Amino acid sequence: MFPLKKTMLKKAQLTLFIILGIMMLMITAFLIHFKGAAQEGNLQPETQKFAEADLSPENVKDFVNRCIRNTAETGIYIIARNGGYVMPENKTEGRVKAAYFGYGGGNVYPSAETVREEISSYVASNLFFCTQNFNEFRNRGWNITDGSMNVTAVFTDDGADFTADYPLALEKNDLKMDLNGFHASAKGMRISFLYDIAADIAKSQADSDDFDVGYFERLGRENNVTIDMAAADAAEDSSMIFFIEDPASGFKDRQFVFRFAVKG
């Protein structure tokens, strides 16, 4: 009698363990299926869809802001070397080109506003080379429409601040983003400071046919910059080219130089 009861009890326990094991397997399978469905987007919450595409209003703005900064830094470097212009028209002959700040005893240098407009125009015209038409995002399935861009540059003691009115509309499935108002700063590029020194030199030469080297050296010491001069390398050109180097500024490990020319 007792052995029979013990055998029946053991069988009941074994059956219970088998049932529990089957239930655990079913629960595990269901959880795996649920996780897989969520990853495929079937059960994905709205807040996770941006994460899936690795895209949000914040990182789109960061992307555009970085491109504005990078493009602006390149533009400031080029415009400083060209005497305040992207492509100067009134410039020296020969291998080294420099925009005239003084010509025939008169001042012909650009206004500070013109220099700002040149930088702003450069950023608006060349931002495409950084954003690459947003192909990185388009390849992820985003439809992107952009409007016309208006960039405003404001000089600072350390470089320039930029504001871009640039409407962007991004759409993917049921997700939509409308963005505008981008901001960036180019620092460590004192183009306004060097422009003022260049203008002072041009003014000092307006009533003189001689180049006062002592004055240029003193002006350099007072402003902690280096002012060098070199004659234009074209035989028929009597211009003097000035190079103002600022040790407090730089561009990708390159010297930051404001270059311009004066011709009596």
Q: Could you outline the blueprint of secondary structure elements for this entry?
A:
Layout: H1 2-39, H2 49-53, H3 57-81, E1 100-103, E2 106-107, H4 112-126, H5 128-131, H6 135-138, E3 143-146, E4 150-156, E5 159-165, E6 168-172, E7 175-179, E8 182-187, H7 191-204, H8 213-223, E9 226-231, E10 240-251, E11 254-263
Helix pairs in contact: 3-4
- Taken in chain order, the helices and strands follow as HHHEEHHHEEEEEEHHEEE
The shape is elongated
The average pLDDT value, as a whole number, equals 82
Computed CA radius of gyration, to the nearest angstrom: 33 Å
Distance between the termini: 129 Å
The number of helical elements comes to 8
- Percentage of residues assigned to helices: 40-55%
- Proportion of residues in extended strands: 25-35%
Total count of strands:
11
Structural class: alpha+beta
Strand order of the largest sheet: 2-1-11-10-9
**Main sheet summary:** 5 strands, mixed
Low-pLDDT stretches: 4-11, 27-53
What attributes does this structure have?
264 residues; 44% helix; single chain; five-stranded mixed β-sheet; three-stranded antiparallel β-sheet; alpha+beta; 8 helices
Model description:
- With 264 residues, the chain is α+β, with helices and mostly antiparallel strands.
- Among the domains are: 53-84 and 111-187, no CATH class; 191-263.
- It is 44% helix and 26% strand.
- A five-stranded mixed beta sheet has the order 2-1-11-10-9. Strands 3-6-7 form a three-stranded antiparallel beta sheet, with no helix packed on it.
- Helix 3 packs across helix 4.
- The radius of gyration is 33 Å and the shape is elongated.
- The termini are far apart.
